[in-house]
Amino acid sequence: MNTETSPREHPRAASIESGTGTALETWVQRITEAGGPDLDHAAIARLLPERWDITEWWAQGVTVAYEQVIGRRVVGQSCDGDFSASASRTVPGDIDAVRDRWATFMTPARREQLGLEEPRLSDTATWRYWRAAVADGSRISVNITAKSSPAGRTSTEPRSTLGIEHKGLETATGRDAWKAAWSRTLADFTTSPDDLLKETR
Rounded to the nearest 5°, which phi and psi values hold at 157? Predict the structure, then answer.
């Protein structure tokens, strides 16, 4: 089966070009000319910042995208061979209120339905986290941070971005199923945020 992906159609092409100042198509050409098809992931990731103006963080992302473009791995597969799913929404409320709403929303019954174990909470100055292991051996992290207002606009109502990262999935099929499940879950979560907020007060 041909798993190659066109650089222009790669889902991270735009973010890579924005973050590195270079189109993914150009990165693919550079890496290929530098012997990329014969190099492993670690060797390519080391080569990029040595030869071009790119941070180590972006070098990892470009390397994964390159391997997906040439068919070494499918889109969504990490350098360890597993898969991840993600989903995010912008929701009203500050980061503490949003995590409180999420914790209320993720009832024991809902966690059982999704196969989630008891959650763990942690904080940083700018992030709030809600993490849980999953019965299939994968793991999720719900990451919440403040959403800034667009340039030129001011708002007295705080907003936050809630993102779900689900890592350690074994197959692309599992990734697609979980991505759909988390999209539905976020849609349910944002259906009546005012009612959920009242429950946490």
Answer: -95, 120
